[in-house]
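Worked example 3 (structure in, sequence out).
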Protein backbone atom coordinates (compact mmCIF):
# COMPACT_ATOMS: atom_id res chain seq x y z
CA UNK A 1 0.00 0.00 0.00
CA UNK A 2 2.88 2.34 0.78
CA UNK A 3 4.40 1.75 -2.65
CA UNK A 4 1.04 2.36 -4.31
CA UNK A 5 0.61 5.62 -2.42
CA UNK A 6 3.97 7.05 -3.46
CA UNK A 7 2.82 8.42 -6.85
CA UNK A 8 0.05 10.39 -5.09
CA UNK A 9 2.57 11.92 -2.68
CA UNK A 10 4.99 12.72 -5.49
CA UNK A 11 2.18 14.27 -7.50
CA UNK A 12 1.14 16.38 -4.50
CA UNK A 13 4.73 17.51 -3.93
CA UNK A 14 4.96 18.56 -7.58
CA UNK A 15 1.61 20.37 -7.42
CA UNK A 16 2.54 22.13 -4.17
CA UNK A 17 5.91 23.23 -5.49
CA UNK A 18 4.35 24.36 -8.75
CA UNK A 19 1.92 26.57 -6.83
CA UNK A 20 4.36 27.60 -4.11
CA UNK A 21 7.37 28.83 -6.04
CA UNK A 22 5.63 31.81 -7.70
CA UNK A 23 4.08 32.72 -4.34
CA UNK A 24 7.48 32.39 -2.65
CA UNK A 25 9.09 34.63 -5.26
CA UNK A 26 6.27 37.13 -4.81
CA UNK A 27 6.91 37.17 -1.05
CA UNK A 28 10.65 37.45 -1.56
CA UNK A 29 10.14 40.29 -4.01
CA UNK A 30 8.09 42.22 -1.47
CA UNK A 31 10.72 41.55 1.18
CA UNK A 32 13.45 42.56 -1.25
CA UNK A 33 11.88 46.00 -1.52
CA UNK A 34 11.95 46.40 2.27
CA UNK A 35 15.51 45.05 2.36
CA UNK A 36 16.58 47.52 -0.33
CA UNK A 37 15.27 50.41 1.73
CA UNK A 38 17.02 49.06 4.84
CA UNK A 39 20.35 48.73 3.04
CA UNK A 40 20.05 52.25 1.62
CA UNK A 41 19.16 53.72 5.01
CA UNK A 42 22.15 51.90 6.48
CA UNK A 43 24.32 53.99 4.14
CA UNK A 44 22.74 57.14 5.55
CA UNK A 45 23.78 56.17 9.08
CA UNK A 46 22.99 54.18 12.20
CA UNK A 47 20.26 56.61 13.31
CA UNK A 48 18.45 56.41 9.95
CA UNK A 49 18.73 52.60 9.95
CA UNK A 50 17.37 52.39 13.49
CA UNK A 51 14.50 54.79 12.72
CA UNK A 52 13.66 52.90 9.54
CA UNK A 53 13.41 49.56 11.35
CA UNK A 54 11.32 51.09 14.15
CA UNK A 55 8.97 52.67 11.63
CA UNK A 56 8.64 49.58 9.44
CA UNK A 57 8.21 47.31 12.48
CA UNK A 58 5.37 49.46 13.79
CA UNK A 59 3.90 49.70 10.30
CA UNK A 60 3.65 45.93 9.86
CA UNK A 61 2.24 45.51 13.37
CA UNK A 62 -0.50 48.08 12.81
CA UNK A 63 -1.52 46.81 9.38
CA UNK A 64 -1.96 43.26 10.71
CA UNK A 65 -5.78 43.55 10.95
CA UNK A 66 -6.16 44.59 7.30
CA UNK A 67 -3.50 42.13 6.15
CA UNK A 68 -5.12 39.25 8.03
CA UNK A 69 -8.50 40.00 6.49
CA UNK A 70 -6.86 40.09 3.06
CA UNK A 71 -5.33 36.66 3.69
CA UNK A 72 -8.78 35.29 4.54
CA UNK A 73 -9.65 35.56 0.85
CA UNK A 74 -7.39 32.63 -0.07
CA UNK A 75 -9.09 29.88 1.99
CA UNK A 76 -12.58 31.20 1.24
CA UNK A 77 -11.95 31.22 -2.50
CA UNK A 78 -10.13 27.87 -2.52
CA UNK A 79 -12.96 26.19 -0.63
CA UNK A 80 -15.50 27.70 -3.04
CA UNK A 81 -13.58 26.45 -6.08
CA UNK A 82 -13.15 23.03 -4.48
CA UNK A 83 -16.91 22.82 -3.94
CA UNK A 84 -17.35 23.72 -7.60
CA UNK A 85 -15.15 20.78 -8.57
CA UNK A 86 -17.32 18.49 -6.49
CA UNK A 87 -20.48 19.80 -8.16
CA UNK A 88 -18.97 19.35 -11.63
CA UNK A 89 -20.39 20.95 -14.75
CA UNK A 90 -23.84 21.23 -13.16
CA UNK A 91 -22.58 23.57 -10.46
CA UNK A 92 -22.02 27.23 -11.35
CA UNK A 93 -22.59 28.72 -7.92
CA UNK A 94 -18.88 28.57 -7.10
CA UNK A 95 -18.16 31.36 -9.58
CA UNK A 96 -20.64 33.58 -7.77
CA UNK A 97 -19.22 32.53 -4.38
CA UNK A 98 -15.67 33.38 -5.45
CA UNK A 99 -16.79 36.76 -6.77
CA UNK A 100 -18.68 37.63 -3.61
CA UNK A 101 -15.92 36.33 -1.36
CA UNK A 102 -13.28 38.46 -3.10
CA UNK A 103 -15.48 41.56 -2.94
CA UNK A 104 -16.21 40.99 0.74
CA UNK A 105 -12.47 40.65 1.47
CA UNK A 106 -11.79 43.96 -0.30
CA UNK A 107 -14.51 45.65 1.77
CA UNK A 108 -13.13 44.15 4.98
CA UNK A 109 -9.62 45.41 4.18
CA UNK A 110 -10.93 48.90 3.47
CA UNK A 111 -12.75 49.00 6.81
CA UNK A 112 -9.72 47.75 8.75
CA UNK A 113 -7.34 50.17 7.00
CA UNK A 114 -8.95 53.25 8.55
CA UNK A 115 -7.95 52.76 12.20
CA UNK A 116 -4.55 51.45 11.11
CA UNK A 117 -3.94 54.57 9.07
CA UNK A 118 -4.90 56.86 11.96
CA UNK A 119 -2.46 55.12 14.30
CA UNK A 120 0.33 55.19 11.72
CA UNK A 121 -0.15 58.93 11.26
CA UNK A 122 0.49 59.38 14.98
CA UNK A 123 3.37 56.90 15.19
CA UNK A 124 5.77 59.38 16.81
CA UNK A 125 3.84 59.92 20.07
CA UNK A 126 3.00 56.23 20.15
CA UNK A 127 6.67 55.24 19.95
CA UNK A 128 7.63 57.78 22.60
CA UNK A 129 4.91 56.38 24.88
CA UNK A 130 6.49 52.96 24.32
CA UNK A 131 9.81 54.23 25.64
CA UNK A 132 11.61 55.10 22.40
CA UNK A 133 14.02 57.99 21.91
CA UNK A 134 12.12 61.09 20.78
CA UNK A 135 14.47 61.82 17.86
CA UNK A 136 14.25 58.25 16.54
CA UNK A 137 10.47 58.28 17.03
CA UNK A 138 10.13 61.46 14.97
CA UNK A 139 12.16 59.94 12.13
CA UNK A 140 10.16 56.72 12.31
CA UNK A 141 6.95 58.76 12.04
CA UNK A 142 8.28 60.30 8.84
CA UNK A 143 8.44 56.77 7.45
CA UNK A 144 4.98 55.65 8.60
CA UNK A 145 3.23 58.82 7.41
CA UNK A 146 4.71 58.32 3.96
CA UNK A 147 4.15 54.54 3.80
CA UNK A 148 0.56 54.38 5.08
CA UNK A 149 -0.88 55.61 1.76
CA UNK A 150 0.17 52.35 0.15
CA UNK A 151 -1.81 50.23 2.62
CA UNK A 152 -5.06 50.00 0.58
CA UNK A 153 -3.16 48.96 -2.53
CA UNK A 154 -1.10 46.39 -0.67
CA UNK A 155 -4.15 44.73 0.91
CA UNK A 156 -6.06 44.70 -2.38
CA UNK A 157 -3.02 43.10 -4.03
CA UNK A 158 -3.03 40.36 -1.36
CA UNK A 159 -6.74 39.68 -1.98
CA UNK A 160 -6.20 39.40 -5.74
CA UNK A 161 -3.13 37.23 -5.14
CA UNK A 162 -5.30 34.90 -3.04
CA UNK A 163 -7.80 34.78 -5.90
CA UNK A 164 -5.05 33.79 -8.35
CA UNK A 165 -3.75 31.16 -5.90
CA UNK A 166 -7.23 29.62 -5.62
CA UNK A 167 -7.33 29.53 -9.41
CA UNK A 168 -3.83 27.93 -9.36
CA UNK A 169 -2.53 30.77 -11.54
CA UNK A 170 -0.12 32.68 -9.25
CA UNK A 171 2.50 33.60 -11.86
CA UNK A 172 1.12 37.07 -12.70
CA UNK A 173 1.55 38.28 -9.12
CA UNK A 174 5.12 36.97 -9.15
CA UNK A 175 6.15 38.77 -12.35
CA UNK A 176 4.57 42.00 -11.17
CA UNK A 177 6.39 41.79 -7.84
CA UNK A 178 9.73 41.07 -9.53
CA UNK A 179 9.25 44.09 -11.79
CA UNK A 180 8.43 46.19 -8.73
CA UNK A 181 11.76 45.22 -7.12
CA UNK A 182 13.66 46.39 -10.19
CA UNK A 183 11.81 49.73 -10.17
CA UNK A 184 11.81 50.22 -6.41
CA UNK A 185 15.58 50.33 -6.02
CA UNK A 186 16.24 53.40 -8.24
CA UNK A 187 13.10 55.14 -6.95
CA UNK A 188 14.12 54.62 -3.32
CA UNK A 189 17.70 55.70 -4.04
CA UNK A 190 16.58 58.92 -5.73
CA UNK A 191 14.16 59.78 -2.93
CA UNK A 192 16.57 58.96 -0.08
CA UNK A 193 19.76 60.51 -1.49
CA UNK A 194 19.48 63.06 -4.35
CA UNK A 195 16.05 64.26 -3.18
CA UNK A 196 17.39 64.35 0.38
CA UNK A 197 14.23 62.86 1.91
CA UNK A 198 16.05 60.17 3.91
CA UNK A 199 13.72 57.99 5.99
CA UNK A 200 10.61 59.68 4.54
CA UNK A 201 11.88 58.88 1.05
CA UNK A 202 11.94 55.19 1.94
CA UNK A 203 8.30 55.44 3.02
CA UNK A 204 7.28 57.18 -0.20
CA UNK A 205 9.04 54.47 -2.21
CA UNK A 206 7.05 51.84 -0.29
CA UNK A 207 3.77 53.59 -1.14
CA UNK A 208 4.68 53.83 -4.82
CA UNK A 209 5.56 50.12 -4.90
CA UNK A 210 2.45 48.91 -3.03
CA UNK A 211 0.12 51.00 -5.17
CA UNK A 212 1.88 49.99 -8.35
CA UNK A 213 1.70 46.23 -7.78
CA UNK A 214 -2.05 46.47 -7.08
CA UNK A 215 -2.77 48.48 -10.22
CA UNK A 216 -0.72 46.09 -12.34
CA UNK A 217 -2.44 42.98 -10.93
CA UNK A 218 -5.82 44.69 -11.29
CA UNK A 219 -5.09 45.18 -14.97
CA UNK A 220 -4.32 41.45 -15.31
CA UNK A 221 -7.55 40.41 -13.57
CA UNK A 222 -9.63 42.78 -15.70
CA UNK A 223 -8.02 41.80 -19.00
CA UNK A 224 -7.38 38.03 -18.70
CA UNK A 225 -10.38 36.07 -20.05
CA UNK A 226 -10.05 33.38 -17.38
CA UNK A 227 -10.38 35.98 -14.61
CA UNK A 228 -12.57 38.59 -16.27
CA UNK A 229 -15.63 36.35 -16.19
CA UNK A 230 -15.74 36.57 -12.39
CA UNK A 231 -16.49 40.34 -12.53
CA UNK A 232 -14.84 40.80 -9.14
CA UNK A 233 -15.18 44.59 -9.22
CA UNK A 234 -18.70 44.68 -10.62
CA UNK A 235 -20.99 46.51 -8.20
CA UNK A 236 -18.13 46.78 -5.73
CA UNK A 237 -19.95 49.68 -4.06
CA UNK A 238 -22.62 47.27 -2.73
CA UNK A 239 -21.40 45.49 0.43
CA UNK A 240 -22.49 41.87 0.87
CA UNK A 241 -23.11 41.76 4.63
CA UNK A 242 -23.42 37.94 5.07
CA UNK A 243 -20.14 37.30 3.23
CA UNK A 244 -18.51 40.27 4.89
CA UNK A 245 -19.40 38.66 8.23
CA UNK A 246 -17.84 35.40 7.05
CA UNK A 247 -14.63 37.17 6.03
CA UNK A 248 -14.42 38.78 9.47
CA UNK A 249 -15.18 35.46 11.20
CA UNK A 250 -12.34 33.73 9.35
CA UNK A 251 -10.02 36.68 8.93
CA UNK A 252 -10.01 38.27 12.38
CA UNK A 253 -8.34 35.24 14.01
CA UNK A 254 -5.79 35.27 11.18
CA UNK A 255 -5.29 38.99 11.78
CA UNK A 256 -4.95 38.40 15.52
CA UNK A 257 -2.36 35.65 14.94
CA UNK A 258 -0.41 37.94 12.62
CA UNK A 259 -0.66 40.79 15.09
CA UNK A 260 0.58 38.54 17.88
CA UNK A 261 3.59 37.39 15.85
CA UNK A 262 4.41 40.70 14.18
CA UNK A 263 3.74 42.43 17.48
CA UNK A 264 6.25 40.12 19.14
CA UNK A 265 9.02 41.16 16.76
CA UNK A 266 7.91 44.79 17.00
CA UNK A 267 8.07 44.55 20.78
CA UNK A 268 11.52 43.01 20.41
CA UNK A 269 12.58 46.01 18.31
CA UNK A 270 11.16 48.36 20.94
CA UNK A 271 13.00 46.45 23.67
CA UNK A 272 16.20 46.93 21.65
CA UNK A 273 15.47 50.65 21.77
CA UNK A 274 15.68 50.45 25.57
CA UNK A 275 19.34 49.52 25.14
CA UNK A 276 20.66 51.90 22.43
CA UNK A 277 20.72 52.62 18.69
CA UNK A 278 23.41 49.97 18.15
CA UNK A 279 21.09 47.32 19.57
CA UNK A 280 18.26 48.46 17.28
CA UNK A 281 20.55 48.46 14.24
CA UNK A 282 21.94 44.99 15.09
CA UNK A 283 18.41 43.74 15.54
CA UNK A 284 17.52 45.24 12.14
CA UNK A 285 20.25 43.17 10.47
CA UNK A 286 19.08 39.93 12.04
CA UNK A 287 15.34 40.48 11.63
CA UNK A 288 15.62 41.54 7.99
CA UNK A 289 17.70 38.47 7.15
CA UNK A 290 15.43 36.11 9.08
CA UNK A 291 12.43 37.70 7.38
CA UNK A 292 13.89 36.83 3.99
CA UNK A 293 14.27 33.14 4.84
CA UNK A 294 10.79 33.19 6.42
CA UNK A 295 9.23 34.25 3.12
CA UNK A 296 9.84 30.77 1.66
CA UNK A 297 7.89 28.70 4.23
CA UNK A 298 5.31 31.49 4.35
CA UNK A 299 4.79 31.05 0.61
CA UNK A 300 4.65 27.27 1.01
CA UNK A 301 2.05 27.80 3.74
CA UNK A 302 0.00 30.00 1.42
CA UNK A 303 0.19 27.30 -1.23
CA UNK A 304 -0.90 24.78 1.42
CA UNK A 305 -3.95 26.94 2.18
CA UNK A 306 -5.00 26.73 -1.46
CA UNK A 307 -4.16 23.03 -1.94
CA UNK A 308 -5.83 21.95 1.30
CA UNK A 309 -8.84 24.20 0.64
CA UNK A 310 -9.32 22.86 -2.87
CA UNK A 311 -9.20 19.25 -1.63
CA UNK A 312 -11.38 19.91 1.42
CA UNK A 313 -13.97 21.77 -0.66
CA UNK A 314 -14.08 18.84 -3.08
CA UNK A 315 -14.64 16.41 -0.19
CA UNK A 316 -11.23 14.74 -0.64
CA UNK A 317 -10.15 14.32 2.99
CA UNK A 318 -7.13 12.14 2.17
CA UNK A 319 -5.99 14.64 -0.45
CA UNK A 320 -6.29 17.52 2.03
CA UNK A 321 -4.17 15.64 4.59
CA UNK A 322 -1.57 14.77 1.99
CA UNK A 323 -1.37 18.40 0.82
CA UNK A 324 -0.77 19.64 4.35
CA UNK A 325 1.92 17.10 5.26
CA UNK A 326 3.79 17.60 2.00
CA UNK A 327 3.86 21.36 2.57
CA UNK A 328 5.05 20.97 6.19
CA UNK A 329 7.86 18.66 5.03
CA UNK A 330 8.95 21.10 2.33
CA UNK A 331 8.96 24.03 4.74
CA UNK A 332 10.89 22.12 7.41
CA UNK A 333 13.52 20.95 4.93
CA UNK A 334 14.17 24.42 3.59
CA UNK A 335 14.43 26.05 7.01
CA UNK A 336 16.79 23.35 8.30
CA UNK A 337 19.13 24.26 5.45
CA UNK A 338 18.77 27.97 6.18
CA UNK A 339 19.68 27.40 9.82
CA UNK A 340 23.10 26.22 8.68
CA UNK A 341 23.51 29.17 6.31
CA UNK A 342 22.73 31.75 9.01
CA UNK A 343 24.95 30.15 11.64
CA UNK A 344 27.93 29.67 9.34
CA UNK A 345 27.58 32.91 7.38
CA UNK A 346 26.56 35.30 10.17
CA UNK A 347 29.62 37.55 10.06
CA UNK A 348 29.61 37.81 6.27
CA UNK A 349 25.91 38.68 6.15
CA UNK A 350 26.23 41.34 8.87
CA UNK A 351 28.94 43.17 6.91
CA UNK A 352 26.48 43.88 4.08
CA UNK A 353 24.20 46.08 6.15
CA UNK A 354 26.25 49.00 7.46
CA UNK A 355 28.67 51.50 5.97
CA UNK A 356 32.18 50.69 7.30
CA UNK A 357 32.82 54.43 7.64
CA UNK A 358 30.08 54.71 10.27
CA UNK A 359 31.64 55.25 13.73
CA UNK A 360 29.52 52.47 15.22
CA UNK A 361 29.90 50.04 12.31
CA UNK A 362 32.07 47.53 14.17
CA UNK A 363 29.66 47.31 17.13
CA UNK A 364 26.61 46.98 14.88
CA UNK A 365 28.24 44.24 12.78
CA UNK A 366 29.36 42.24 15.81
CA UNK A 367 25.94 42.34 17.43
CA UNK A 368 24.17 41.66 14.12
CA UNK A 369 26.31 38.54 13.56
CA UNK A 370 25.55 37.25 17.04
CA UNK A 371 21.81 37.75 16.58
CA UNK A 372 21.96 36.04 13.18
CA UNK A 373 23.27 32.93 14.93
CA UNK A 374 20.26 33.14 17.27
CA UNK A 375 18.01 33.48 14.22
CA UNK A 376 19.52 30.31 12.82
CA UNK A 377 18.54 28.47 16.00
CA UNK A 378 14.80 29.08 15.52
CA UNK A 379 14.59 28.66 11.72
CA UNK A 380 13.11 25.15 11.80
CA UNK A 381 10.42 25.99 14.37
CA UNK A 382 9.48 29.17 12.52
CA UNK A 383 9.10 27.34 9.23
CA UNK A 384 7.02 24.50 10.63
CA UNK A 385 4.60 26.74 12.51
CA UNK A 386 3.83 29.01 9.55
CA UNK A 387 3.24 26.12 7.12
CA UNK A 388 1.08 24.25 9.63
CA UNK A 389 -0.95 27.43 10.17
CA UNK A 390 -1.41 27.75 6.40
CA UNK A 391 -2.62 24.16 6.14
CA UNK A 392 -5.10 24.73 8.99
CA UNK A 393 -6.45 27.82 7.20
CA UNK A 394 -7.25 25.58 4.26
CA UNK A 395 -9.65 23.80 6.63
CA UNK A 396 -11.00 27.20 7.77
CA UNK A 397 -9.45 26.54 11.21
CA UNK A 398 -8.12 29.85 12.50
CA UNK A 399 -9.33 30.37 16.08
CA UNK A 400 -7.35 27.70 17.93
CA UNK A 401 -4.10 28.59 16.10
CA UNK A 402 -4.70 32.15 17.32
CA UNK A 403 -4.75 30.85 20.91
CA UNK A 404 -1.50 28.95 20.30
CA UNK A 405 0.08 32.18 19.05
CA UNK A 406 -1.15 34.17 22.04
CA UNK A 407 0.25 31.72 24.56
CA UNK A 408 3.51 30.99 22.75
CA UNK A 409 4.43 34.53 21.77
CA UNK A 410 3.15 36.58 24.67
CA UNK A 411 2.86 33.98 27.42
CA UNK A 412 6.36 32.61 26.81
CA UNK A 413 8.49 34.40 24.20
CA UNK A 414 8.29 38.02 25.30
CA UNK A 415 8.44 37.44 29.08
CA UNK A 416 11.34 35.03 28.58
CA UNK A 417 13.13 37.52 26.34
CA UNK A 418 12.75 40.33 28.88
CA UNK A 419 13.90 38.07 31.71
CA UNK A 420 16.96 36.86 29.82
CA UNK A 421 17.76 40.24 28.28
CA UNK A 422 17.43 42.45 31.35
CA UNK A 423 17.25 40.42 34.54
CA UNK A 424 19.76 37.77 33.46
CA UNK A 425 21.95 40.44 31.85
CA UNK A 426 22.21 38.81 28.40
CA UNK A 427 21.16 42.01 26.64
CA UNK A 428 19.92 41.81 23.02
CA UNK A 429 20.95 38.15 22.80
CA UNK A 430 18.53 37.34 25.62
CA UNK A 431 15.68 39.01 23.74
CA UNK A 432 16.33 36.77 20.75
CA UNK A 433 16.64 33.68 22.94
CA UNK A 434 13.10 34.43 24.11
CA UNK A 435 11.93 34.60 20.48
CA UNK A 436 13.38 31.13 19.85
CA UNK A 437 11.55 29.72 22.88
CA UNK A 438 8.22 31.17 21.78
CA UNK A 439 8.43 29.99 18.16
CA UNK A 440 9.20 26.44 19.29
CA UNK A 441 6.27 26.60 21.71
CA UNK A 442 3.92 27.49 18.84
CA UNK A 443 5.28 25.00 16.29
CA UNK A 444 4.66 21.90 18.40
CA UNK A 445 0.92 22.35 19.18
CA UNK A 446 0.24 23.77 15.70
CA UNK A 447 1.61 20.61 14.08
CA UNK A 448 -0.23 18.42 16.58
CA UNK A 449 -3.51 20.14 15.75
CA UNK A 450 -2.98 19.64 12.04
CA UNK A 451 -2.31 15.96 12.69
CA UNK A 452 -5.56 15.62 14.62
CA UNK A 453 -7.79 17.54 12.19
CA UNK A 454 -6.34 15.94 9.07
CA UNK A 455 -6.53 12.35 10.34
Amino acid sequence: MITAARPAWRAEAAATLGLAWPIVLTNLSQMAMALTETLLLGQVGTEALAAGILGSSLYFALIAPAFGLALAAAPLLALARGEGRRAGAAGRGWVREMRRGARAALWACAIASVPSGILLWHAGPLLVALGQDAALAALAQDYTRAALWGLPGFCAFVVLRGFLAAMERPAAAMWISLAAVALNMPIAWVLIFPAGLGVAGAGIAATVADTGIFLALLAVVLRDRAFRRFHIFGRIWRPDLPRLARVFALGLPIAASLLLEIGLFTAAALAMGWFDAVAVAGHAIAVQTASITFMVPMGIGQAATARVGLAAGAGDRAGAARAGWVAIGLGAGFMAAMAGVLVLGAATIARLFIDPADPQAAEVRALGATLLVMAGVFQLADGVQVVAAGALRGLADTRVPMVFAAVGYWGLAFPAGLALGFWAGLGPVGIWAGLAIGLAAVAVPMTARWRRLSA
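Notes: Residues 2-454 form one domain. The chain has a mean pLDDT of 88.
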